[in-house]
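Deviations from the work plan: none for this task. Representative record:
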Amino acid sequence: MQKPVVTRFAPSPTGMLHIGGVRTALFCWLYARRHNGTFILRVEDTDLTRSTDDNIRIIEEGMDWVGLDWDEGPVPGDPNAFRGPHGPYRQMLRMDLYRAKIAELLDKGLAYRCECSREDLDARRKQADAEGRPFMYDGRCRDKHLDPSTPCAIRLRMPDEGEIVLEDLVKGRIAVPASSLDDWIIARQDGTPTYNFCVVVDDVDMGVTHVVRGDDHVANTPKQIVLYRALGYDLPAFAHVPMILGKDKQKLSKRHGAASITEFRDEGYLPVAVRLCLAKLGWTPKVDGKAAESVEEELLTDRQLMETFDLGEIQKAAAVFDIDKLKWINQKFIQRLDWTEIAPHLRWQWRMRGLEAAWDATSDDWKALAIGCNKNRATLVEMANTLAFLFTGPEAPAEADVAKFMTPAVRPALREVAALTDYAHDALKADVEAILARHGLKLKDLAQALRLAFTGKLVSPPIFDTMALLGREAVCARLEKWI
RNA sequence: GGCCCGUUAGUCUAGCGGUUAGGACGUCGGCCUCUCACGCCGAAAACAUGGGUUCAAGUCCCGUACGGGUCACCA
């Protein structure tokens, strides 16, 4: 009985995929998944000067990495291939549809040609400014019935009185006086349609039932509502989600650190952590009707998000993005996830360091141990940092560290460690303890000396794990110069 | 400036007329410990403001302040 839910994420391919956009997409995706609906990815590339195919790739890769799969939209890798019944999902390829709709509005007298030139308009705007009154197009061309041969932009005829009401799922009821809206341009002089026109036509054509987008679009919506009606369409539900701010409460941008989704990948965050963090920014999941009241309840699965998500519960106010919270969530996921779920993402870190071949050459058991003994790192960058010495060899140790830990007292013990052959954790532990007892040493002293020999630094995974990862051959090789 | 929106600790938030205003991150203190980290225990920390309405207001209404969005032949 109810129409199946259709949501859409409609970025313009003009640069990186912003984390704010990803959150909007996440909400669209969660809502569609929650209701067994359809999630569409549509490319809004009508800004010819800034849109590129490379940027479309960036969007596809970002969406793919963060795990937001779309049911209809571009086929990744081919900017002109699409899947879904409402294609093409790229606005520049949909011009015929727009032209037909514009013609229809013109025929019905709901839109009209306007011959005012851009220069003329600019001058009038300037004058209005100078006189301190707001500039609005005065509708002077409304009834001129200009001939198609004269160069004209096309404007939508807006109501003169009354108010236009937007029932927004997150903002509530917003009413604006019709008198504050002027007849806006739906097609430029060169015939190309404008953004506000295209979204409406596309959303209707694609059957979008819930328009979820950033709240910077709120002001546009009343205009669009008039267009929906002019075209004889039913209104979709609208949900305007607040934007994400940086620490200084300004719009989140590169100045604040990571703003692009690929930076989060590069900085070692897991997609599942990014998803949870973003979802909880401005929305509080209610499991069994109540918000989280413990650490355990804070850490929800995608499944739980999908089962409880509701557009109506989204916060009205903008929220500051807290990277520390993401870090914490990321750490929790690293602790809880099986190594097989972490490995592919950790591999990206090796790839960035040119060490992927070395990583690939290791066995599954080795990988499981490497990741398993590093479960308390906050990010995969940190994990790779503490593991890198396995592939690259020890760094040159600091003089002070050598003086402090490579003492005459421990050196003989080092020699005995080098002689050990059984690297199974428990055996190694027992053997080392025997060595300690024989020399009257503390594990503390020996471990730091070994770390220094193995890594050149005083930080490594637990020492027995470190030895197991290194293997006897490498252990002996790295110990050699110290004994 | 016009129109619109927002305001609970440093941050994200719970709250939907009666609570010692709850949780999480972060911060600070302590414990644990083979390094880093984890973990555990504890602490400090909030209803922007002024008027109403009401027996009772973080919760409802109005104003003020502050913040934001938008006013293009950009999206």
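Chain A has 21 helices and 13 strands.
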